[in-house]
Amino acid sequence: MSNNMQLDGSTPLWFAARTLLSRRGEDFFRLRDRTLKTSDVEDIHDLRVASRRLREGMDLFSPCYPAGNIARLVRQFKRVTRLLGDIRNTDEAIIFFSALVEELGPDHGSGLEGIIDGFLMKRKRELKGLRSGLREIASDPLHDLCRRIFNAPSLFTPAAGGIDLFMPLSCFAGDALETRLAVILKLLPEARQAAEIEAQHLLRIAIKHYRYRMEILSFLIGPCYEEIHGILKSYQDLLGKMHDLDVFAGIIRGTAFAPPTDDPVSRAITTRRDGLFADFTAMLEKIPFEKIGEGIRSTFETEQARSN
Amino acid sequence: MKQEMKELKKIRGIGEVLSRRLVEAGFDTLAKVAALDEETLQKIPGMNPRITGSILAHAGELAAEAERERAAMVKDLQQQASSLKVQVQELARAVRDRFGGEIGGKDGRKAEKEVLKVITSLEGVEGIIETRVNTAGKVLAKTGKRLEGLADTGLRGVGKGLKKARKSLQRALVK
Fold first, then answer.
1. Closest chain B residue by Cα to residue A155
2. CA nearest to B112 within chain A
3. What is the third-level CATH fold of B2-50?
4. Rounded to the nearest 5°, which phi and psi values hold at A237?
5. Would you say the C-alpha torsion A171, A177, A183, A188 has a positive or negative sign?
6. C-alpha distances in angstroms, A19 versus A152, A249, A285?
7. Tell me: the pLDDT tens digits for B110-152?
8. For residues A294 and A303, what is the distance between their CA atoms, to the nearest angstrom?
9. B13: left (phi over 0), alpha (psi -120 to 50) or beta
10. Which among A36, A47, A68, B141 could disulfide-bond with A31, CB atoms 3.0 to 4.6 Å apart, if both were Cys?
C-alpha cells in the first residue's frame, strides 16, 4: 500500500491515525519477514521494538476506531512482544554474565559458568520455538486483519472519550504526549529513592511509552525532536541497565550455589548499580522532565497556532 | 506495433520501413535504440552505415527528453492523487457537518465505508503511477470529475457517487 502522502499538524485525526498505524504495521511485518529469514539477534531486537511501537500507536489512536477492534489486535501483538522478549532477555543475560566472568577472572567467576551454560541451552530452545511461534502468532491473516482494521477508523460514529475525529492532528498530539509525561512526573518522586526498585522499573516503562509516542509524532515536533529523543533514550538506557542488574542479582540469589552476599559477583553488581543510580539522579538534576515537557509544549503551541 | 513505430519515426533518418524493422528486432522504444552501439544498428537491413552515429545521437536526445516529460508527469499525477485524497477528507467533513442527525443511519454508514474505500483505492493508484502513467492519469482525472459536486448532494447521493469513483479506481488497479 502506498502511504506517501505528507502528513502535518493540520491533517484530520482520523486520516493521520489510519496512515500512521498502517505505516507502523507494514514496518512490523517487513521486519517479521527479515527475522524469519535471518534469526539474527539484532533483527529479533528490531522486531520486538517494532511490535512495541505498533502497540503504542494502537494505544494512541484507539479512540479513532470502533470499540474492540484495536483491543483485539493489541492482544495478539502482546503475545509477539512476549515471545521475542524471552529470547532477548536470554541474550542480555549471556552477554552480561560472560563479561562478568572476564572482569572477575576464573577464580571468582567460576560459579557463573554454570549460569551461562544454562542460558545458552535456554537460548537454543527459544530460538527453535521462535520461528514457528512467529509464523503462528504474527501470521499473514494477522497482517490482513491489521490492514482491514487500520484502514477503517470510525468516521461518523462518536469516538471514545468524545474526541472529535476531524480535529487537526496537532491538537490531539499535544494532549497525547502530555498524558504520557504526566505518568512519568507522577512516578519520579518515588523513583528518586535508591531502594525503590519497582518505581524505577515503572519509570523506565513510562519513559519508553513516552519515547515511542514521540517517535510516532516526530514529524510534528520540529528541530528539538532529535535532542529530546536522545535525552529520553539516555534515561531509558540508564534505567534499563539498572533493571537488568536487578534481574541478574535475582538470578544469582536464586541459583543453587547461592553465594554469600559479600561475594565478588554480588559486590560487583551492587557497585555497578549504585554507580548507575548516581548517574540517574545527576541526570535528573541536569535535565529535568519538566523541562522536556516545556520544550514539547511550546512546539505544539506554535503548531496549533499555525493550524488555526 | 504502430504506436512503437510512430515513436521511432521521430528519430531523424528513421522512416516507415526502418522503424518496422527496428520494432521487429526488439528495439521498440527510443531508450532501447539509444542504448544500441553502431555495429548492432548497422545490422538492421537497409540501415545506412554513414548515418548510424547521428541516429543514435538523436535517439539519445529524444529518449532523455521523453524521460524528463515522464518524470514531470509522474510528479504531477502524484500531486493530483494527493489533492484528491484531501478532497475526499474535506468531503467527509462536509458530510459530517451537513448530516449530523442522519449520519448514524444506513446511508451514513455506507458513505463512511465508501470514503475509506476511495482513499484506499487512491493509495493503490498512487502505487501504479510510476509503472502505468497513462492509466493512472486517466483514472485520476475521472475520479476528480466524479467527486465534483458531491458535497452538495444528499447523503445517499454521496455514498453512490463515491462508490462510482471507487469502482473506476479499482478497475484501473485490476487491469
1. B112
2. A155
3. DNA polymerase; domain 1 (1.10.150)
4. -65, -45
5. negative
6. 11, 44, 39
7. 999 999 999 999 999 999 999 999 999 999 999 999 999 898 8
8. 14
9. left
10. A47
Which is it for the CA torsion A287, A293, A297, A300, positive or negative?
A: positive
Domain residue spans of chain B: 2-50, 68-174
Residue A178 near residue A299 (C-beta atoms within 8 A): no
Taking CB atoms and an 8 Å cut-off, how many pairs form between chains A and B? 46
Q: Distance between CA A293 and CA A299 in Å, rounded?
A: 10
Written as one letter, the residue type at B169 is L
Determine contact, residues B29/B4, Cβ cutoff 8 Å.
yes
Rounded to 5 degrees, φ, ψ at A50 are: -60, -35
Looking at the complex, does the CB of residue A12 fall below 8 Å from at least one CB of chain B?
yes
Q: What is the pLDDT of residues B10-22, one digit of tens each?
A: 999 999 999 999 9
Terminal-residue alpha carbon distance, chain A: 31
Q: Does A152 touch chain B (CB under 8 A)?
A: yes
Helices (H), B99-154: 106-128, 133-147
Alpha-carbon distance B60 to nearest alpha carbon in chain A (angstroms):
32
Cell 462510482 sits on residue:
B164
pTM across the whole model:
0.83
Q: Which three cell numbers stand for residue A286?
A: 541536569
* Cα–Cα distance for residue pair A146/A26, rounded to 1 Å: 9
| Dihedrals phi, psi of A152, to nearest 5 degrees | -125, 65
- Calculated CA dihedral for residues A275, A280, A286, A290, nearest 10 degrees: -170
List pLDDT tens digits, range B155-171: 999 999 999 999 999 99
